[in-house]
């Protein structure tokens, strides 16, 4: 009874001390304590409480000094890296079975385990003998790893020393190689599982690439190979340059601080920096918005990405050195003797290295050429050469920015035939690109808080350059044959590559980053002495780099006047080709999913139409190289063999199609549409869902045209949880509307047959007037689970363009994508008394960028153009759309 009361008192005292200590540590964190300070303090507090509990339990035993028991901290607790909500890994190391104190040790271990739970410590608790630990470590490398981090918290020091000796003995050479192999496999698998990139929109601070586990894994490998105890010793032993040790320490401290705040903010063990968590942390850690500039959350993510980069770089370098370069020679594959390449470089042990340590001091341009040579030889760079480059780059400071020889080496790399761009990533990560271009260094890890821009500005630029190099080399010929042909025909690729390099570098300098980027080009041309003709084209490319994506996705490509005006703006076919290629690389490297077949067709159509117009005699002539009638006949001829029973209707169908359809449709797609058109003429409606191999689907809907038809179509889709990613609205000459949509289910993937059937039935009721579209959509919105609050918000902008089209008024809408958005806009326009003649719908992440070509129904009798001529009417239309979107966003 007395023993139980004593335990209760000890538990109550420990619980109070833990609560008091945690409050004190939280106060230090809120006052700005570094990440390491907090995790060390949390570990020390846990040591104190466990030791006190242990002493209290031992005090109830007649001979407490005779209890052979060691309490060993393992894992993050063993490394003294406890975050506020981390669980603790504790090993109760027991004596052997025949030890006379075994029973007492078991009893104390069990009492301690119960006491830990009573005070609220989540403990990964194990009680094992030394022999059991060794056997389990032989069978499981994760247990072997945990023992590497073991340290004595309380209890029998001699027993713990036996565990330390056994751990060292077990890691003899054969088992060292086995351990390193297991760790490398685990390292690579973890990176694959958590996305394999530093540039995730919602990075995992512990398990993701560049996360805390990366550095732990590298240090485990360094420890078993070279017996180093941490980053400091790795630097002292020359395994990492001093600069990288310092940078990795600072990065780790920041990641710890972010992780600590995550645990405090969420009240749980949470290590993923979700969009909601990003906003929480930015506010809690004092990252404020710059008026009209960088958001606080973008500053937070910039610091986070830099930290993840530094950890990933240090971890990769340490693993490369310890696991590969320092492996016993008997384990390496046979490699040729040192082979000279030129005066600066040689091949040694299957890697590119320098001939002497003065290489970069003699000629700084060789810092660029090192990785160009490595790309040519398809060999990695030796760590010594890499470290030497980093040291020399620090020494020369800003001199590389004006070193024309170094810039010439980069130009050679960018335009070389057959280059795959692999050299650009290390040149960027090591800071060489930033030294050459302070314009890039300024944007290091500059985040863009949106679902559309997956990568930071500088990384997007590097990826786009590498992508263009692969296109020019022919590596993408199977996927992009036409773009490859245009790219390989370039006579002045340097202007294209520099335009791509500078296209986004004006971001963060004001509202028009294209104009700011053009100013940077002028400064660069003067600094380096760029050829004047190249400088003019690079400047123009940067100024115009958004034009083709805007026109192709948001304007009517059937409008001959628009095509002619764009041709005059471009001036030369050479510039048009360069802008086409730049636009492709820019779009393809925004995110892995951004470049779609739909966008590719639109961009290609704009390029081909403009090119044909520019080559035609007399730029202002309305005729194209081939007449529209010839295009219709050609489509009909290609359709007929695919159309089956409808083959005789192919020419009639082609003659009803608008020009924009003729320019983009594939014969196989047109054949499906011909069949549906035939059915729609008989029944008044036809629809088909065509699934693709990429997780989305193409939906085609045809019906007798009428005002407000798009609102009905989109109501049925929204009501059944079918999200619209893109749309093309076509009015055929015979009075049939042919609308195509790129769709998916709200959770991703192509809509199921059952969902499409339900939407089809709803649509038939809407077309017949048997149901109300507003009621249908509201029913969906009430049960929608789309978590818009978790994604970055998008400011709504509605703008009238009365210049780009002579025949219609264009309404541009930029807003946050939501369930039912397209229906809401289409319904608002219908109620405002305007007809949607053409709609260009695109979804980029959670951002909808839509354009509607409108005719004023009220003014058709008096105005042949159908444009909304009255300014007050235009304002009323804009207000109607803004009000409808605001109501949808507010759940009204």
State the helicity in percent bands: 55-70%
- In the predicted model, the low-confidence regions spanning at least 5 consecutive residues are 617-626, 785-789, 860-864
Termini separation comes to 65 Å
Strand order of the largest sheet: 8-9-11-10-14-15-13-12
| Assembly annotation | single chain
Give the tags:
Beta Polymerase, domain 2; Four Helix Bundle (Hemerythrin (Met), subunit A); 56% helix; 4-stranded mixed beta sheet; 8-stranded antiparallel beta sheet; Hydrophobic Seed Protein; 15 strands; 892 residues
Task: Describe, in plain words, how this protein is organized in 3D.
The strands form 3 sheets. This protein has an 8-stranded antiparallel beta sheet with strand order 8-9-11-10-14-15-13-12. Strands 3-2-1-4 form a 4-stranded mixed beta sheet, sandwiched between helices. It folds into 5 domains: 169 residues, 2-Layer Sandwich (Beta Polymerase, domain 2), CATH 3.30.460; 157 residues, Nucleotidyltransferases  domain 2 (Four Helix Bundle (Hemerythrin (Met), subunit A)); 100 residues, Hydrophobic Seed Protein (Orthogonal Bundle), CATH 1.10.110.30; 178 residues, no CATH class; 215 residues, no CATH class. The longest helix has 30 residues. It has 38 helices and 15 strands. The protein has 892 residues and is α+β, with helices and mostly antiparallel strands. Helix 8 packs antiparallel against helix 9 and helix 26 packs across helix 29. About 2% of the residues have low confidence.
């Amino acid at each position: 009874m007395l023993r139980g009361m004593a335990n209760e008192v000890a538990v109550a005292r420990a619980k109070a001390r833990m609560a008091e200590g945690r409050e004190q540590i939280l106060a230090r964190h809120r006052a700005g304590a570094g990440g390491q300070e907090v995790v060390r303090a949390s570990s020390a507090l846990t040591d104190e409480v466990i030791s006190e509990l242990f002493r209290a339990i031992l005090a109830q035993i007649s001979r407490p000094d005779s209890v052979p028991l060691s309490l060993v901290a393992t894992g993050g607790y063993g490394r003294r890296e406890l975050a506020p909500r981390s669980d603790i890994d504790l090993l109760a190391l027991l004596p052997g079975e025949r030890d006379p104190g075994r029973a007492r040790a078991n009893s104390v271990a069990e009492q301690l385990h119960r006491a830990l739970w009573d005070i609220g410590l989540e403990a990964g608790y194990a009680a094992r003998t030394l022999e059991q630990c060794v056997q389990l470590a032989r069978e499981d490398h994760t247990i072997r790893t945990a023992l590497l981090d073991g340290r004595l918290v309380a209890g029998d020091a001699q027993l713990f020393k036996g565990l330390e000796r056994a751990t060292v003995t077990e890691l003899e050479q054969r088992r060292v190689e086995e351990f390193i192999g297991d760790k490398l496999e685990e390292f690579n698998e973890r990176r694959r599982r958590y996305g394999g990139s530093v540039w995730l929109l919602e990075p995992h601070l512990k398990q993701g690439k560049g996360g805390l586990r990366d550095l732990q894994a590298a240090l485990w490998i360094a420890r078993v190979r070279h017996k180093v105890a941490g980053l400091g010793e790795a630097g002292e032993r020359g395994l990492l340059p001093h600069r990288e040790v310092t940078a990795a320490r600072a990065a780790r401290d920041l990641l710890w601080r972010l992780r600590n705040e995550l645990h405090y903010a969420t009240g749980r063990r949470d290590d993923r920096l979700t969009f909601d968590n990003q906003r929480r942390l930015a506010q809690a850690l004092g990252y404020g918005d710059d008026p009209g500039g960088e958001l606080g959350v973008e500053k937070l993510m910039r610091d986070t990405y830099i930290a993840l980069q530094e950890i990933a770089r240090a971890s990769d370098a340490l693993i490369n050195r310890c696991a590969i370069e320092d492996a016993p020679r008997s384990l390496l594959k046979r490699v040729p003797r040192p082979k000279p390449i030129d005066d600066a470089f040689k091949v040694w042990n299957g890697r590119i290295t320098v001939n002497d340590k003065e290489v970069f001091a003699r000629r700084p341009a060789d810092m660029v050429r090192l990785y160009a040579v490595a790309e040519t030889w398809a060999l990695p760079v030796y760590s010594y050469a890499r470290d030497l480059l980093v040291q020399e780059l620090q020494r020369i400071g800003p001199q590389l920015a004006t070193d024309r020889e170094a810039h010439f080496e980069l130009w050679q790399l960018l335009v070389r035939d057959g280059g795959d761009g692999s050299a650009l990533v290390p040149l960027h990560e090591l800071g060489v690109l930033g030294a050459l271009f302070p314009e890039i260094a300024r944007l290091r890890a500059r985040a863009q808080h949106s679902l559309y821009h997956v990568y930071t500005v500088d990384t997007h630029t590097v990826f786009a350059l590498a992508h263009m190099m692969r296109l020019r080399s022919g590596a993408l010929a199977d996927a992009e044959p036409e773009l490859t042909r245009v790219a390989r025909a370039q006579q002045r690729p340097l202007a294209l590559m520099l335009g791509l390099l500078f296209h986004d570098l004006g971001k963060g300098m004001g509202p028009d980053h294209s104009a700011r980027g053009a100013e940077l080009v002028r400064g660069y041309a003067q600094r380096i002495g760029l050829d004047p003709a190249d400088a003019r084209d690079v400047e123009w490319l940067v100024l115009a780099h958004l034009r083709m994506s805007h026109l192709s996705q948001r304007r009517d490509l059937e409008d001959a006047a628009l095509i002619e005006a764009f041709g005059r703006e471009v001036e030369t076919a050479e510039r048009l080709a360069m802008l086409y290629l730049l636009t492709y690389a820019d779009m393809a490297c925004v995110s892995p999913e951004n470049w779609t077949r739909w966008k590719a067709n639109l961009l290609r159509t704009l390029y081909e139409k403009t090119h044909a117009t520019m080559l035609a005699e007399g730029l202002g002539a309305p005729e194209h190289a081939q007449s529209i009638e010839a295009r219709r006949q050609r489509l009909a001829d290609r359709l007929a063999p695919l159309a089956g029973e409808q083959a005789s209707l192919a020419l009639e169908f082609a003659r009803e199609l608008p020009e924009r359809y003729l320019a983009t449709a594939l014969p196989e797609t047109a054949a499906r549409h011909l069949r549906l058109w035939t059915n729609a003429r008989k029944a008044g409606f036809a629809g088909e869902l065509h699934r693709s191999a990429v997780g989305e689907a193409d939906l085609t809907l045809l019906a007798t045209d009428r005002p407000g038809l798009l609102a009905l179509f989109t109501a049925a889709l929204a009501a059944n949880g079918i999200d619209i990613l893109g749309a093309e609205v076509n009015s055929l000459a015979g009075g049939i509307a042919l609308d195509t949509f790129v769709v998916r289910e709200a959770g991703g993937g192509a809509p199921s047959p059952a969902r499409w059937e339900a939407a089809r039935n709803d649509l038939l009721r809407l077309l017949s007037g048997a149901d109300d579209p507003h009621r249908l959509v509201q029913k969906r919105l009430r049960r929608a689970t789309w978590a818009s609050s978790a994604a970055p918000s998008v400011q709504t902008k509605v703008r009238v363009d009365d210049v780009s089209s002579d025949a219609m008024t264009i309404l541009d809408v930029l807003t946050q994508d939501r369930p039912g958005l397209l229906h809401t806009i289409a319904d608002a326009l219908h109620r405002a008394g305007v007809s949607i003649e053409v709609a260009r719908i695109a979804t980029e992440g959670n951002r909808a960028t839509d354009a509607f070509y409108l005719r004023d129904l009220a003014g058709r009798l008096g105005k042949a153009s159908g444009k909304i001529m009255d300014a007050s009417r235009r304002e009323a239309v804009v207000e109607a759309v803004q009000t409808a979107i605001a109501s949808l966003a507010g759940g009204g």
